[in-house]
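Collaboration report, partner site 2.

Our partner group contributed sequences for two proteins of shared interest, and the home lab folded both. The records are reproduced in the order in which they were received, starting with the first partner submission.
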Amino acid sequence: MNAIESKTIGEFVAQDFRTAAVFSKYKIDFCCKGYKTIDEVCQKKGISKDVLEHDLSFILNSNNDSNINFNFLSANLLVDYILETHHRFIEEKTPTLMSFLDKLCKVHGERHPELFEIKTLFTISANDLIMHMKKEEIILFPFIIAMEQAVLSNQLIDKPHFGTVENPIAMLQEEHESEGIIFSKIALLTNDFTPPDDACNTFKVTYSMLLEFEQDLHKHIHLENNILFPKAINMEKQFYSN
């Protein structure tokens, strides 16, 4: 097995986030299912391994000067990036999307009844994400930052009330999985976010925003599942065993 075949999807995207575009092209989940290898996803989806590896090699061998290598960010900086980029994105975009979906249901719902289910699914997703982000901001992220500060100052840290960092991480990963399922359903209902032929400008903008929301969510989940969470688990091992 060569180096490409043995790497997990999450490891590819952690090394170079531009590879996410390749996986998205083939509808390969690089965030929630990032633990799978190239060989596994190709077999399951019936994708040519040679073609996928060629696309990945092209990306990996091209210039990447402007891309951030998130693997080398400290936990503190990574948390800040997630908060300022992805949590803020969700907070800012959700009210607009909710308003647009409500308008589309009222104006176009009779001709496009799928809009009601799309609105319901997005509402569930948005509400769940608000609670999800609060758990991260109040419980997990402060502990990760405290661990890193303790490592840097060569100090000990008390065991958290949740026992081990792996407990909230497992819960958050399950919630990530649920978000991925919801947006898979939205993608199906929207024909991969393709507006119908009779779509007005609001229709087109809403579908574009839903696509943007999904893409941001994928990157958000990837940064946590494949980089921040493993970093936190490894840091915790420096203080005590589970």
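Second partner submission, folded after the first:
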Amino acid sequence: MSTVNMDRILNACVTMGASDIHLITNRPPVLRIDGGLRSLETKVLDPDDTTALMKSITPDKNQQELQEEGGTDFGFAFADKCRFRVAIFKQRGVISMVLRLIPFKMLTFDELGLPKICAALCRRPRGLFLVTGPTGSGKTTTLASMINYINENFDRHIVTVEEPIEYYHNHKKSIINQRSVGVDVPSFSEALRRVLRQDPDVILVGEMRDLETIEAAVRAAETGHLVFSTVHTTSAAGTITRLVDVFPVSQQEQIRIQLSSNLIAILSQALCPKATGRGRIAAYEFLVVTPAIANLIRENKTYRIDSSIQTGKKLGMQLLDEHLWKLYDEGIISYEEMIDKARAPGALQDKARAKVESMTGKHKHKKKAAEEELKKHTDIIRTN
């Protein structure tokens, strides 16, 4: 395939509203649209095709890394339409590629459906704000919106450390420096070691993936900076446990004390296809660290955090399953999607059954349809 064909694939991704492109041998180009995979009606790719496609967009430095390491990551702009984050790797001795579309347009908090209190938390002068969730759940988009909100509304010096840079930010009311790991700085930990000398107000760490990075991020929050980062966890309480467990046992009490003092919020999210089959929507679990929750963190009682979230609704707090139920109850997501993403699917199944049983006699036809729906999906109920 030629460069022209790569342009056509990139154009198809943009015009069809896809989030990712998969280029692998023995399949045509595949797009991920609303969470599902769809093949383009073009030729099946062979090893020469994927190699040519790779060379058409990959800088020489990354091609060398691919040969030496078996994989490489980078980003590039596609005309004035969007950016793509690219992961290239070898499998069975041939080239495969995955390209993630990064739109230029920043979404607002309302468009993302974020809790209202997020705007107030972004005004905070210091602390640690974590966005968590599995790969592909929209963490990067959420963080980009928060950085853009600060950039538009406050005079701050923002420094981001990413691998690679995904959303590009222009200077607005704030000034912003974006450092790419592997290009501008060798590692996250090295970037964070030096960032405190750069007079930052706000620091974005692309991912807290090791002890050294976590230590540096917490220290930055402790010394008077607002720090944003991501963790690959699926709940607020689980995030705190994961961060503490990274440390040796002898240091775990100290990190609990530091988190209790510096953590301000955890936003855990899951991206769900809409019931209409078009578009996706995020379901959120949201924790705001109150003095009571800080005390639970300090005393290693994270198992009680879920109860505190349930009683903290006036601050915008909610459990993931509560938001999933709301989206299902309003007909925005399907029953099976709610169950699939739920942390306690059995409880939501019982809630859905109780809703069916509460229907009045004049809605018998609706009751029958709902019962059939529940019966149909019983097989997918998981246990914790």
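Feedback sent to the partner group on the second submission included the following. The first strand starts at residue 20 and ends at 23. The mean pLDDT is 90.
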